[in-house]
Hints:
Elements: E1 3-8, H1 14-27, E2 30-36, H2 46-49, E3 53-55, H3 58-65, E4 69-72, H4 79-88, E5 92-95, H5 103-116, E6 120-122, H6 130-141, E7 147-157, E8 173-174, E9 177-178, H7 189-198, E10 207-216, E11 225-232, E12 237-243, E13 245-258, E14 262-266, E15 271-274, E16 277-280, H8 286-295, H9 309-320, E17 325-326, E18 332-335, E19 342-345, H10 348-358, H11 362-365
Parallel strand pairs: 1-2, 1-4, 2-3, 4-5, 5-6, 7-12, 10-17
Antiparallel strand pairs: 7-13, 8-9, 10-11, 11-12, 13-14, 14-15, 15-16, 18-19
Amino acid sequence: MTRTVVLAGTSGYGATYLREIAGLEKEGVLRLAGLCDVRPLVSSAQPQFGDRLFDSRLDRLLDLTRPDVAIVSTPIHTHLPLGRAALEAGCHLMLEKPPAPSAAEWRELDALSRQAGVSCQVGFQSLGSGAFARLAELMAAGTLGRIQGIGCYGAWTRDAAYYQRAAWAGRRELDGRPVADGALTNPFAHATATALALDGSTGWDDIATLETELFRVRDIATDDTSCLRLTTRRGTVITVAVTLAARVPAEPVLIVHGSRLRAELRYTEDVLVVDGRPTRYGRTSPLRNLLDHLGDPPVALQSSIAACGAFTRVLETVNTSPSPRLLDDRWLARDGEGLKTRTYVRGVEEAVRASAERLATFTELGEPWAA
């Protein structure tokens, strides 16, 4: 069956959806009925999609096209109104991560999807990785032994232009509405969501304790260098330590500490390392998984809106915690000029890794800039 879809948000990550839609159209599994954005369609997409209906208002586009699925890949603070429009129109919803910038908005979207009797998938791509699935199998089978904890670290770098990309960049709120564009809640959101999913702790009440240490190196409202540690109701300790101020960037790694074996999941690369032996796996995208689910309901959604409760609790805690502390210049280094300026925390690459290895916070590790 060929499903009809509309896409809200054609730039930024929306460009990834445009590429995927092009491939899925060739397969005959979907047809793009229309596009929505507040800006014109990007020139690279004009040759293929320039003849499709285009509107700056999603509700109007939905009324004209009546699609099976609406994809919302827009700024975080617009997810609720656009998601609401899609669900109230009776569409299945493919919603980019994070699903909502607050617990109240997440609950509303979850309730709306239930009331409408439609599916809502959240775009946590890592949960469609074969490497993730295999690691979950090994954990469930006891192959790794008793799980002593899960740690994740990530070290990326961003220049000043990153925080000028949009009015909501680096903000906790915009015009009185929550945004939650911090390192833990947006660029590294997959780290927390993946760790919680591996533990089978995805519900709001599945978190027993939660603590955070939030820092920043720029004049922004959100964190860019942070760690969190939580304990699930199952008793699993999970730490996530990340930075956007690394001099030497590296892809994130999730470490499962087992009493018998240690496993590393490089979730952006679909690589699983068990006992030092790496294996690369394939991946099923959230959109394809949603289409498979609609065609065959026993196929489970990778990340339903209902299964984002624990992640949203983390997001809510981070976004409502005291403002991230600005690090003193003595711990920082810089290069570049103007919008190309990059700011680094000295030794932060080692700090985030040590947090994941030892399941410890920056303060417990004795990092001088965290004191």
